[in-house]
Amino acid sequence: MPDLRDGESTLMQGSGSKPYELKNVGGVYSCTCPAWRNQSVPIERRTCKHLRKLRGDAAEEARVGGALPQKPVKEAGASAGPPLLLAERWASDLDLAGWWMSEKLDGVRAYWDGKQFLSRQGNLYHAPEWFVAGLPDVPLDGELWIDRKKFQRTTSIVRRQDKSEHWKEVSFVVFDAPAMPALFEERVAFFTDHLTRHAPPHARPLGHERCKGLDHLRQELARIEALGGEGLMLRQPGSKYEIGRSTTLLKVKSFHDAEARVIGHLEGKGKHKGRLGALEVELPNGTRFSVGTGLSKAERGSPPPVGSVITFRYQELSEGGVPRFPSYVGVHAEATAPGAPAPRKRRS
User: Fold this and answer.
1) Which domain holds residue 295?
2) pLDDT at 76
3) Is residue 43 part of a domain?
4) For residue range 260-306, what is the model confidence (pLDDT) as tens digits?
5) Would residue 71 count as lying in a domain?
6) Residues 67, 45: contact at Cβ < 8 Å?
7) Which of 15, 36, 222, 301 is 20 to 30 A removed from 67 (C-alpha atoms)?
8) Any catalytic annotation for residue 240?
């Protein structure tokens, strides 16, 4: 099959009037098609039908770790995803003393419906039979997890459809029993007892401890982040399992700021049609990625020019050094690339 050398690009006609551009920059393959741009995974792990057509399925699957497209469990038009409790962000004015505190795992959220694992969007995770052995026939809420800083590895395994031996690296860490009409502590006692008695080799309960106050929270957050963890989850004592976002479950984590040079503008789709969809940016070390959140309507209509330097906020770096969940903050007040227009004032 043909391939692109580092720095090369080619055009491929899609369904639209304009052809899509396929590029290879330092081993990171990209395509200007919407399917490639709109994926919620790091850019080095994205693929699309155009890249597969150019390079072949085998080469693309080898490049992205063997991940295959997930198959929807539900028919088109059905309600999306299982009934999950979703966290709100912690407001620093809320006293969390007495709440249940646990590590926010950097894995893949998974809903065990008693027979199979479903993603938040209702897609099936093809876990081997030996992996699910010993799990109860009632719903469990948890995380498919390998270890800290192993998010990409976890994703590449659980999205496969071949039920491979790679699942031996993964654990199902359980933190709730959604179908039980009981208080949080009773639900934890239920699934902890089941997992203890039946001892499924690839499942375990998530540990919780009482938060003693703000100082304790900050100390634990600093400890977890120093170990490479994502943050903390806080659960209100005596709370029921609610569907959707709820203030009974709060996430606490730190974000980092950094600067990157704008190297391109990606066209918007849907509600952003005719405006900027995302900024294509580059770090000083050459790492490239896109920033599509945090931009106002005015900034999408008149985006930072190519060559300007922006500040963005991100959660952490992936194994490949790509910022995860980057969000636009503003044009950097001081740093400007040589020859670039003077930056606009940074937003407060």
Assistant:
1) 255-348
2) 41
3) yes
4) 999 999 988 888 888 899 999 999 889 999 999 889 888 898 899 99
5) no
6) yes
7) 15
8) no
- Tell me if 76 is assigned to some domain: no
At residue 157, what is the residue type? Answer: I
Q: How far is Cα 66 from Cα 60, in angstroms, rounded to an integer?
A: 8
Catalytic member of 18, 23, 104, 212: 104
- Render 221-285 in DSSP notation, one character per residue: HHHHHHTT--EEEEE-TT----SEEEEEEEEE---EEEEEEEEEEEEP-GGGTTSEEEEEEE-TT
What is the pTM for the complete model shown? Answer: 0.60
pLDDT tens per residue, range 35-76: 777 666 677 778 888 888 898 888 888 888 654 444 444 444
Q: Are residues 109 and 247 in the same domain?
A: yes
Same domain, yes or no, for 190 and 41? Answer: no
pLDDT-above-70 percentage for the chain: 88
Total domains in the chain come to 3
Q: Which helix (H) or strand (E) holds 156?
A: helix 151-158
Characterize 164-198 residue by residue with b for buried, 16 or more Cβ atoms within 10 angstroms of its Cβ, and e for exposed: eebbeebbbbbbbbbebeeebeebbebbbebbeee
In-domain check, residue 77? no
Q: How many CA atoms lie within 13 A of 121 on its CB side?
A: 8
Q: Are residues 92 and 147 in the same domain?
A: yes
Question: For 81, phi and psi rounded to 5 degrees?
Answer: 80, 160
Q: Any idea what the CATH number is for the domain that residue 281 is in?
A: 2.40.50.140
Structure confidence at residue 131 as a pLDDT band (50, 70, 90): very high
Side by side, the strands of the sheet bearing 231-235 are 85-89, 244-252, 231-235, 100-104, 209-210
